[in-house]
Predict the structure.
Amino acid sequence: MTTELAAELVARIEEALRPAADPERAAPMAAYMKHHFAYLGIPATPRRALLRQALAGTARPEEADVLDLLDACWALPEREFQYAGLDYLDRWVRVCSPDALARFESLIQSKSWWDTVDSLAAHGVGALVRRDPWLRTEMDDWLESGELWLIRSALIHQLAWRTEMDIDWIEAACLRHAAHRDFFIRKAIGWALRSYANQNPQHAARVRGFLAAHAGTFSGLSAREAVM
């Protein structure tokens, strides 16, 4: 059963976004996402402005409110509602406990594509693991799961950690999947390494040294992404 606050918030979100639908914009947005999802046709900037207005003055949520709102947004057909749920999570992930990881895992594997997966990984999963490092064992399990989107999420969950990124773990994770043939995994490997390298020249030197030490191990895509 959805919490009372989550139901109110989702109703406000629908009331704010549906009248702003733009079918002419929706068509190319859906095409960009390979027609996996329907769109209302609202770009990110106006969508977020509408959400700020719609949710202004609402109560501080508890964990159940945030998670139920996410589930409700995932149940709606248009992709903007999933984005709205992710924006709300980004603001309120601090009220979520380690128990939320299981719900994030479920969402990662539902209506899965890079747009929602990457946000859940960096701003949902990553926030929990950063705060509760013992959850790293779950990331190890995700790496071994054989599930594409869980592997990608584990690889990139530290993107928002900046100088706190654990490069030893990232290097080992990248090596574990260096031979993976999927584009999204190869891209994630390069992205994780580049995010670390971008922090300072010393980090960049370490990434270059790591790639040199394992020359020929990584795909060209992963190597290029790592040093962009």
Q: What stands out?
A: The chain has a mean pLDDT of 98. DSSP finds 13 helices and no strands in the chain. The radius of gyration is 19 Å.
